[in-house]
Amino acid sequence: MNAKFAASISQVNCDTQPLLNPFVHRLELNTTYEKIKTAILTLILVPVRVGLICFFVVTGWMLATVGLFGVTEQELHEKPLEGWRKSLKRLIAKLIFCIYTISGVRLKIVGRPSTKAEAPLVALAPHSSFMDSVAMVYLGGPSIVAKGETASIPFFGKLINYTQPIYVWRDDAESRQKSVKEIIKRASSQLDWPQILIFPEGTCTNRSCLISFKNGAFYPGVPIQPVCIRYPNKLDTVTWTWEGPSALKLLWLTLTQPSSNCIVEFLPVYYPNEEEKRDPKLFANNVRAIMAKALGIPVVDYSYSDCKMMTRAKEMNVPFATSLVEVRKLRKSLGLKGTEREEALVKANNYACRDCSKVTYIEFVDIMRLHSNEQLALQLFRVYDKNNTGLIDLRDYLLGVLATEEDKTTEEIVVFAFLIYDVKRNGKLTPDSFCRAVCHTLGITQEYGLQIFDQVDRKQLGFVRLEDFLTWAAKYIPHLIYSETEKPNWKNLAIYRNIDKKID
């Protein structure tokens, strides 16, 4: 009975819903009509639009340069612009708004924007595109909380600086703390600072849900106006996520569309109660719930750290990198998080499967000690069963889990990869197994992996041991395994050596 169930698992009609992955966007021109139309409009429409866009960008940049002339960077952060400089900012905002009109954006406004006196902060979500800045331009250029790298964008960096933004370097904890203090200072200031516009999610998603809101903007405990943005278009050419089309491709496809609809809805100002003022996380969650209800989408507790994890996995070339956010959430729901069950399996070097590259659902739940009728376990299995064959490669799952643990160094991950792909359990990796181990952890090509194998296997034994590889790697490719502050830690070999002793 188990064999039949395992063989037909891909055909089971269950009530499980696929877990949302907000960091993936697929965009393809599927029909011949769409391809021909895009080709024609690329030749006819795009050159005209690009020419006009460049004209307005350069004009806006020149005006911003004039407006900022004589203003030091320190002055720009200490006091708001006044007089003619402030009036010039509104003119620049109108010029930039023309860019969206030229690009074919048809903006529909729902609700009423608040004044700074009513709500010092504006929270815009879901954040999915560079096109979201249309709301900022419509509001006349409020100060935005933006990642520090945007200041160096040619032309646009100057325009952004004119809004007197609050820059934050997301990977720098000190920078994040400074940005929070600056938000609090401006929100409570009696000076005529512009409203502060924030993207509380902190990164782009595909708008399928609202991910976790960052708490920074909610620390001041002042009224916030939630603003929802939608793009009700047949072809979504604006969504820019971690996995999907490049910004250049999206810009090109957007410019080939006769028109692109955008709806910006200003919800009523949210006034925090005393409990929310004391608890920024509660404040953020409650605002997110109201916005999710207005948008008709769920809330999902993904965050920027999930994006970093997925990016690292992609750089390492870990199998199913873009699905690892789903895996992390499912493992937590199944009670696997914190158990180190996968690590124990790899260290034991005995997965209880005859062929770990072809594991059935029944074998999977047995190995992971899960209940076979657990719907979440089935969802986890299906993440790796993309082709609905009823079989998965258990090694992909184990490596994905271990490679994305925050406390693991690259060297430790390589050690685990050698254990995982040691098919014969003899401490020796063949060329194929070796390539899998290094290509799925160091992000190198198979061709380069084979070259490394040949250099490590000087005696042409046909296999490579981990210790030999790490000795060679520390000398010839340390940049791939060790950061500037790391040194080879031979204690990581203890696991592997102990297994070698058991085998010998």
From TrEMBL:
Residues 372-407, 409-444 form the EF-hand domain. Pathway: Phospholipid metabolism; Lipid metabolism; phospholipid metabolism. InterPro entries: EF-hand-dom_pair (IPR011992), EF_Hand_1_Ca_BS (IPR018247), EF_hand_dom (IPR002048), LPCAT1-like (IPR045252), Plipid/glycerol_acylTrfase (IPR002123). One of its GO terms (biological process) is phospholipid biosynthetic process. GO terms for molecular function: calcium ion binding; lysophosphatidic acid acyltransferase activity; O-acyltransferase activity. It holds the Pfam family Acyltransferase. The keyword Transmembrane applies. Keywords: Acyltransferase, Calcium, Lipid biosynthesis, Lipid metabolism, Membrane, Phospholipid biosynthesis, Phospholipid metabolism, Transferase, Transmembrane, Transmembrane helix. The chain crosses the membrane at residues 50-71. The keyword Hydrolase does not apply. It is found in: Membrane. GO terms for cellular component: endoplasmic reticulum; membrane. Belongs to the 1-acyl-sn-glycerol-3-phosphate acyltransferase family. This is EF-hand domain-containing protein. It comes from Dendroctonus ponderosae.
